[in-house]
Design brief:
This protein is mainly β. It is built from two helices and 14 strands, in the order H-E-E-E-E-E-E-E-E-E-E-E-E-E-E-H. It has one domain: E3 ubiquitin-protein ligase SopA (Pectate Lyase C-like, 3 Solenoid).
């Protein structure tokens, strides 16, 4: 169990090569680095701010309202997780995959996605302002009412995702170079005050 490893293990250099299933990751966690860890169906209540995760898997975990701001995720997988209202602000996701997760009302402000693949995820009402997104792919995602204020979306393909009601700056410069479907373009034109006849 996670609590036993924290109490009994030598974890001064971080936690490595472990698997936790149906476990509780609680507030007593003081580990700063996790490497090759599988969290399967775990519930996170710990403040995980400023932690480093390398080659970790989060499978069907409950990260709702968890604080993971300022954290670093490299070569990680989030699959089927619930992270409603979680704080990932100022975090870095690099060469990672997010699949079938719910990030409704989550905070990603000032975070970066670099070479991240995101498939079938919900970011409804998420705060994604001032992000840096490079070489990342989004497919079949729900971004309804997500806020992308001051997040350049150049080269991001939203054509198979739901971007209805997204929040942008007054000039909507964030969309410059973004890829959208014809139907999405018509919806965005209305935001610009264009009347389609």
């Amino acid at each position: 169990m996670f609590a036993d490893d924290i109490l009994n293990g030598n974890i001064s250099d971080g936690l490595h090569d472990k698997e936790y299933k149906n476990d509780h990751i609680d507030p007593e966690c003081s580990i700063s680095e996790f490497q090759n860890i599988v969290f399967d169906s775990c519930v996170f209540t710990a403040d995980m701010s400023g932690r480093d995760f390398y080659n970790c898997e989060f499978i069907r975990c409950d990260l709702s309202n968890c604080h993971m701001n300022g954290s670093y995720f490299k070569d990680c997988i989030f699959r089927g997780c619930k992270a409603k209202g979680s704080d990932f602000s100022d975090s870095t996701f690099k060469s990672s995959n997010l699949i079938g997760c719910s990030f409704s009302y989550a905070l990603f402000s000032e975070s970066s996605f670099n070479s991240v693949r995101i498939n079938d995820c919900v970011f409804e009402n998420a705060l994604m302002s001032q992000m840096k997104i490079k070489q990342s792919e989004f497919s079949y995602c729900n971004f309804r009412r997500a806020e992308f204020f001051k997040t350049p979306l150049k080269d991001i393909n939203f054509s198979d995702s739901d971007i209805s009601g997204i929040v942008l700056s007054d000039t909507m410069y964030e969309l410059k170079g973004a890829k959208v479907s014809y139907a999405q373009a018509a919806d965005l034109a209305v935001l610009l005050g264009i009347k389609i006849v």
